[in-house]
Amino acid sequence: MSLDSGIFACIGALFCAFATHSADKVDFDREIRPILVANCFKCHGPHDEARKAGLRFDSFEGATATLRSGRQAVVPFSPDGSAILGRVSNLDIDERMPPVGHEPLAPAQIALVRRWIDEGGEFSAPWAFRPLEAVSTPVVDDQEWCDGDIDRFVLATREHVDLARPKHDLDPSALLRKLSFDLRGLPPSEADVKAFVAQPTAARFDEWVDRYLADSAFGERWGRHWLDLARYAETLGHEFDYEMPDAWRYRDYVIDALNQDIPLDRFVREQIAGDLQTPRAAMGLSNVAPIATAWWFLGPAVHAPVDVRQDEADRIAGDIDVLGRSLLGLSVACARCHDHKFDPIPAADYYALAGVARNTRRVNGFVQTDSQADGLLRRAVESFEASARIARLEGATKHRTTPGVSDVSGASDAHGATVVDELADHGSSWKCSGSAFACKTPGLHWGSIDSARLDRKLVGSARSTTRSVEHRYLHVRLRGSDATIRPIIDNYWLDERNPLLFEGLLRKVPHHDGAGEWRTETFDLVRFRGERLYIELIDDGDGWIEVDWIAASDDATPPDATAWDVDEDPVLDPARRIEVDAMFADARQAATALAACTPPVRAMIAEEGGSFDESIHVRGASHSPGAVTSRGQLRLLGEHSPTSIEGSGRLELAQSLSNPKNPFLWRTMANRVWLKLFGRGIVETPDDFGQLGSPPWSAELLDFLASNLADHRSFKSLIREIVRSHAYRAVADVGELPGSAWGPLAVRRLDAESIRDAMLAASGRIDLAMGGPSVAAHLSDHMQGRGRPEKSGPVDGAGRRSVYLAVRRNFLDPFMRVFDAPIPSTSCGRRHESNVPAQSLALLNSELVRTIGEYWGDRLGADGQTSEDSRVESVWYAMFARPPRDDESLMAREFLDAERAAQPTASDATTKDRAAYASLTQSLFATKEFIFLR
Amino acid sequence: MSDHLHHHCGRFRTSPLTRREMLGTVGGGFGLLAFNALFGRETLAESLLSTVGGGDARSLLATHIPARARSVIFLYMDGGPSQVDTFDPKPRLVDLDGKPFPMQIAPTQFNNNGSTLPSPWKFARHGQAGHEVSTLFPHIAKVADELCVIRSMTSDFSEHTNANYFLHTGSGIAGRPSMGAWSSYGLGSDNQDLPGFVVIDGGLIPPGGLDCFGGGFLPARFQGSVMHAQGDAIADATPSDSPDEQARKRALIARLDSRYAHDTGAESIESAIRNHELAYRMQSSVPELAALDGESDETKALYGFDAPDAATRTYARECCLARRLVDRGVRFVEVTCPKTIGDRWDQHGDLKAGHEANARAVDQPIAALLIDLRRRGLLDSTLVVWSAEFGRTPFAQGTNGRDHNPFGFTIWMAGGGVRAGAVIGATDEFGYRAVDKPYKIHDLHATMMHLMGVDHRRLTFRSGGRDMRLTDVHGNLIEDAIG
Questions:
Q1: Structural domain count, chain A
Q2: pLDDT at B467 exceeding the cut of 90
Q3: Under 8 Å CB-to-CB from A20, ≥6 apart: which residues?
Q4: Is residue A269 part of a domain?
Q5: How many Cβ atoms are within 10 Å of B100's Cβ, its own excluded?
């Protein structure tokens, strides 16, 4: 029986155990609800449209309502008066419920339902939907075993089914090995093991806990857990597997945030709306919070969608699936087509989230690295503004004689075009990233948005408001050099990689010395009528771009832009001119200094887009709009407040998700921590706390931990609490099925990253450098297909930890996959722990294992001064965190001798030694003790 | 529009104890179908999870329905051959040669729609059934009586990657289990030394990459194992150590492992040790399997091992290897196309040269595969499916190419349980849209599963709160195709 089946066995046994021990009163949650969910809710659940015969059977009110027949499904305390019992036990299959085609209820189930009604037929809210409340610690008989409250909760589940405490504890070296892998994903050093074994006290253990929590390897280990939830990858998958060149910044952000142990609620808010939070400087950047919002954009993406609106809806569905599973533990994405059939999640909640996502833009943003930069930019803008203010007061603004100059937005000009933005507001409604477009104050010019206003060297991007495409043509008057302009339709941006079906939208402004000629670019939007559009200007080098007039029309011919010119020179009082010039010079000086700063880094970040509410898509079809639903307001969080939302709703969403009263976030996260430390969760389905998921084996323990997390908002603090429990160091009793109640697993297999990192660490090949662009993927001959990089990366990943290997969706590392590293298509809260021959083949024959073994063999073989016994001992410590037993030493020496003897006789002793040790270490990599934890 | 995306709610729990819970108590090694038969459980189950590599073998006597096919060979025609140039002749196209296409055209992938383009190839009737086959496939034409041709297949996507995921997994989005993974999960493997789902890579991994063959949310062992028909067949299966050194390593590992198994008392360690032994066996069984040169000269010539065209030679080895795999009990074999001068079957331009090169690569080997399976008595228990992710437009892209067309295209099946000689469904008079008996990919999946003895509605896996299945909430049998 595999580990998996062991887990299943324990639930089954747990289930039976509870069933037999509940002699007092029927437990609705455990005994009745599963019957109703399985047999009734599909037609009599929360889904209005699917409901049959007007019976809603998921609440007391519904079950006791008077039906058309005049009867009630449930009459409390009166089984015989309840219609339900007659229906489920009816022998006439046309009358029986559930109907033809379904299995009838078993007699034992019918008996349970009867008892339940006899006892009052009460319902209770599904456990996950109940508020988080303080729980009292249970009283247990065996107080001595309990180090703290966690132990009381877990022992209570054992005593409830007449099981005693686990008989044994891990020996100190195995305990330290487990702690080190759990907290850092790395094996403990030989010195650590020896030091702890010499003095294995609770106090010393606590010191190691704190030391490992403070180790930067902690963030790499637990950051990877988070990346599983975020479907982290560095390419977009699909046909060509295009790269997301800045994705690694998100990975580094996560690792740093976990190492800093920033408050969990803040961490969640940064994921959703980091661009809208107060800035948080870290990692040498002035504000890392926006980098977190790459979370929205880590999913796969399709190039050249025939239906761009549908493509956006599909992408958003993936994002909502990730949001629901990872942060709420709920299958919210099920409500895309209809109200959720089992959980109280209306379709309106899905479209409240879809509205948020549609109004959120993906931006190739700029994050400042130089500590001076923000101050210089502020000074430049303020000085520029001051000079301009005086000039304006003096009436020294230039005028122009352009068609449309007197028009307000939305009016038709003399050419019949609708002026959608004549920028009289100098682009103040435009959203900017970077510094190039930051100065939106008019100088001596008419309205325009301009990346050269402060200094041509500055970089940045700017985006207009979002509008509907109502006319076929879009005309934009611009001038500049070496910059980019593009209309973006329905947030589709992949035309920057592959223009197919979107030809002509993304345009480069060619290089041009001097002031540049005004001209008008005309975009044909015939395929995008009715879709949403915004215009993006990008100046990511020494070029510049200025736009001063945007119009939409059904006429392909733009007005003649060259005829629009300045009609007079500005006039300014000479005294005032000196003042203005001085301020203007200061602005220029600050801007020049800013341009000389360390350049900002690029990052994939979110930005506010429009502020539209989304319509429910009838049956999920993006072209069948139904009722409009207010964005960002999730009923399932009990916060359907009428406050109006100004932006995308991300800020409000982030707030409600991270609210200390949102039970879903704290429960799912507490359960995830427990799962990673024990190998199984308190809830077995970490991404589904709904009615189709598994119930917790101890709802009290889960709430105890969730409350801890909500109070302290610290992963590290919760982890510390758990690993210091007696439960953490307990050993499974031989022969005891691990799950007849809570019980430790006999063994857990290391995950893919830990196995690879442990090989690197043991061999000494590891390079513990943190962060930065990923190590290129190593590509075997078996990894073929479109989007295959031209160059393969190093076979041993240059010794870097696995979290820094490139994650290419179409070229996932086969070694990592065979040990169940996730496919990054959606959230993965629990990895499989599969057990297949391909794992042994990889450990026996893969180039990776052979390379690392040879590296280690070379080191050991070259160390001829050290005795064989000492070298063997060092190998055992590095692999198993313990010294070899006597018979193992003997076995190893015999093996080494045989290996040396098999070498060509002409080889020198060192060469023979190297080969022999390489064989030894390669063999040990394939042992079970190496890849399993006790 | 992608209908399947909007109706993805699967089946739900049908008993208060999940199968997981029930079967978990039964433990490893217990055949799941036998278990189902004993306890009358409704669905094929996850007891596979509790068995180990060597323990999957099971009899097909206890499938949902009597199995007609023991194995599947899926001949994936990467890129989309044109239906009107292969198995679905349309004389009306000749009448309108060069004229505007008379039907309304839905948005196409390249939006460069030209005029009506008749087939450059002639059609003739072949065999007793009188199947119409174009001159692109002279060898397949000779075995036409084995074929059951479906001219009314449709897809939901006109883009390769979505359509590939859809064809392989029943969903247009990456990350779902491939049909081969479902088969392997549902039926296990009849060979203890080989994986249940093998993909023979001819050089073209389809757009969408290995996710087309992935295990999705199923445990990783059900995902496709990529094999090559030349060189090292499977990654990491060829030891570089001498047999003596292998023996020494094996002995050392075994001694350490047995001690650890004893100390932990963990069943999962025992099964890991069994898998390790299986891995050793694979190190010899895989090279033996891939030793195609041991085939008789006549067989090699039949497949085209010595054909003048390199792509034909590659595909010949692939088809021969496919036969050897099903002969050894591998459940599901997918064969991908070799590189030719054209880019797959994806002729957006220069249809004539591209289709001829692609047809030349696969024609003789496919015919040989059917002949070889037949004479070895394997065809009756092997379902052969020939299909692409979509077909091509009957009007030109540019002047001499064809764009993607998911609205009506031809696939065929042969062998295990299929009604040979049948022609099912029809496209309109121009070969653009399926009009008579239009079928969906879900229907193809349902039918393939049915022929293997599996009710597609009852093969499920719980993931993300739903009991997922290959056909989602869709799938009707293509009754006319079932012999």
A1: 5
A2: no
A3: none
A4: yes
A5: 11
- CA angle in degrees (0–180, nearest 5) for B428-B431-B437: 50
Chain A residues with beta carbon closer than 8 angstroms to that of B245: 899, 902, 919
Same domain assignment for residues A98 and A180: no
Cβ contacts (< 8 Å) between B46 and chain A: which residues?
8
Do A163 and A740 contact (CB within 8 A), yes or no? yes
- Which residues of chain A does B49 touch, with a Cβ-Cβ cutoff of 8 Å? 2, 4-5, 8
- Judged by average pLDDT, the poorest of A413-422, A849-858, B436-445 is A413-422
A932-933 and A748-749 beta bridge pairing: antiparallel
Q: How far apart are CA B49 and CA B56, in angstroms?
A: 10
Domain range for A914 is: 847-933
Give a three-class secondary structure readout of A481-532: ECEEEEEEECCECHHHCCCCCCCCCCEEECCCCCCCCCEEEEEECHHHCCCE
The CATH topology of domain B71-233+295-481 is Alkaline Phosphatase, subunit A (3.40.720)
Cβ contacts of A617 on chain B, cutoff 8 Å: 6
Query: What one-character-per-residue DSSP string does B423-481 give?
Result: EE-EE-TTSSSEEES-EEHHHHHHHHHHHTT--GGGB-EEETTEEE-TTTT-----GGG
Confidence of residue A442 (pLDDT cuts 50, 70, 90): low
Work out the mean pLDDT of chain A and round it to a whole number: 89
Nearest CB to A337 within list B7, B173, B248: B7
| pLDDT tens-digit series, residues A102-155 | 778 888 889 999 999 999 998 888 889 999 988 999 999 999 999 999 999 999
Selection from A779, A791, A868 nearest residue A815 by Cα: A779
- Of A71-80, A391-400, A629-638, A843-852, which range is least confident? A391-400
> By the 8 A CB rule, do A478 and A521 touch?
yes
Residues A210 and A316 in one domain: no
Domain identity same for A64 and A190: no
Whether A871 is in a domain gets the answer yes
Q: How far apart are CA B348 and CA B393, in angstroms?
A: 10
Residues A559 and A454 in one domain: yes
User: What would the 3-class secondary structure string for A243-261 be?
Assistant: ECCCHHHHHHHHHHHHHHC
Separation of alpha carbons B4 and B273, rounded Å: 42
Q: Which residues have a Cβ under 8 Å from the Cβ of A417 and sit 6 or more positions away?
A: A404, A475, A551, A552, A553, A555, A558, A559
Same domain, residue pair A481 and A407 = yes
Asked if B229 contacts B321 with a C-beta cutoff of 8 angstroms, the reply is yes
- Stronger pLDDT, B196 or A47, i.e. the higher one: B196
**What tokens appear for A651 in the block?**
């800020």
Residue A781 lies in a domain: no
Scanning A40-171, the segments in alpha helix (DSSP H) are 41-44, 60-64, 83-88, 107-118, 149-160
CATH code, domain carrying A423: 2.60.120
- Residue B62's pLDDT is 57
Residue A362 has pLDDT above 70, yes or no: yes
* A782 close to B (CB below 8 A): yes
Which amino acid is located at B458 in the chain?
R
The answer to whether A547 touches A478, Cβ cutoff 8 Å, is yes
What string of DSSP letters covers B236-262?
Answer: T-S--S-HHHHHHHHHHHHHHHHHHHH
Closest among A762, A806, A808, A803 to A927, alpha carbons compared: A762
Each residue of A886-904: pLDDT tens digit? Answer: 999 999 999 999 999 999 9
- Does A680 share its domain with A639? no
Residue B275 distance to chain A (closest CA, Å): 5
Q: What would the pLDDT profile of B128-182 be if each residue is shown by its tens digit? A: 999 999 999 999 999 999 999 999 999 999 888 889 999 999 998 878 999 999 9
Q: Tell me which range, A467-471, A632-636, B121-125, B226-230, is most confidently predicted by mean pLDDT.
A: B121-125
Query: Does ipTM surpass 0.85 in this model?
Result: yes
Residue at A919 is within a domain:
yes
- Single residue among A124, A151, A181 that ends a domain in this structure: A124
